[in-house]
């Protein structure tokens, strides 16, 4: 199948270097220690310095690259402001450290900051107990459940330093950078209140994880909100982005290459989740199943304990969507939740 997207750049800049992708907008690429092995950050020219969008993973290696970037990518100019799109550690990870380096304020949405502080404050015991109760009800068996519960608060382990209390942004807010207006649009589903920034004058969208060119971001149900329906939240907010912006918008994603073709990509992402919902409903039609039973329907590869956590969150998300829209029913039996079409 032909890729409907158009890519104006065929590769990312080297770590610590920058590449201009639109007037006053520069691309940074930093490594990640995961299967998804990189993150894109965005530098916006801002007077005698920069506004930075997202910060990279919290690690010494990332800080070493940043120290090189202070002179190379930043040209010795200061960061005046840090905008964090959402709470995930590859986006917020260096916000505290960079804020200290430059005495720069951090800007986030209220919902992202609330979840950040809530997750960071939880004890290992609390996280383990929540995992055990939540995933146990959804069918995860003993050894796997022990592995998940035994992970403790991995969020705090990989995000040891929080940024200072941020200034808050909300849907519709205007961020002025070098005389340009960047309008705040909110994505949901992957994160509670994910910032996307749109410069209308030349149709540039910093999309974070909300719109990626090759994959769909993880949609997960957390133990903190077990009845959440992130699939509907994600697809509804994607359509709102599509309807507010031109098809030829230059999309600057957090992972993968910048691209044109926003409308086609949003349609593909919505189609993907509709297909996942249909597959899940078909499985529920065969017999009552748990979210754990659904995993091999939605995921065709073997999952380690780290992947299992995200896969279970996504499996529950699709079942919760089917439940919320009346396509399945749910019953509890022997302490586990079973879904039937």
Notes on the protein architecture:
With about 350 residues, this protein is of the alpha/beta class. Helix content is about 40%, strand content about 20%. The protein has a domain at about 20-120 and about 155-285: Metallo-beta-lactamase, Chain A. It has eleven helices and 15 strands. Helix 5 runs antiparallel to helix 6, helix 8 runs antiparallel to helix 9 (about 260-285) and helix 10 crosses helix 11. The protein is globular, with a radius of gyration of 20 Å. The model has no long low-confidence stretch (mean pLDDT about 95).
The total strand number stands at 15
Q: Over all CA atoms, what is the radius of gyration? A: 20 Å
pLDDT < 50 runs, ≥5 residues: none
Assigned CATH class of the domain at 19-119 and 155-284: Alpha Beta
Sheet with the most strands: spatial strand order: 1-2-3-4-5-6-7
The CATH topology of the domain at 19-119 and 155-284: Metallo-beta-lactamase, Chain A
Shape label: globular
| Major sheet attributes | 7 strands, mixed
Structure classification: alpha/beta
**What is the annotated CATH architecture of the domain at 19-119 and 155-284?**
4-Layer Sandwich
- Can you give the helix content as a percent range? 25-40%
Helix and strand run: EEEEHEHHEHHHHEEEEEHEEHHHEE
Mean pLDDT across every amino acid position: 97
CATH homologous superfamily grouping of the domain at 19-119 and 155-284: Ribonuclease Z/Hydroxyacylglutathione hydrolase-like
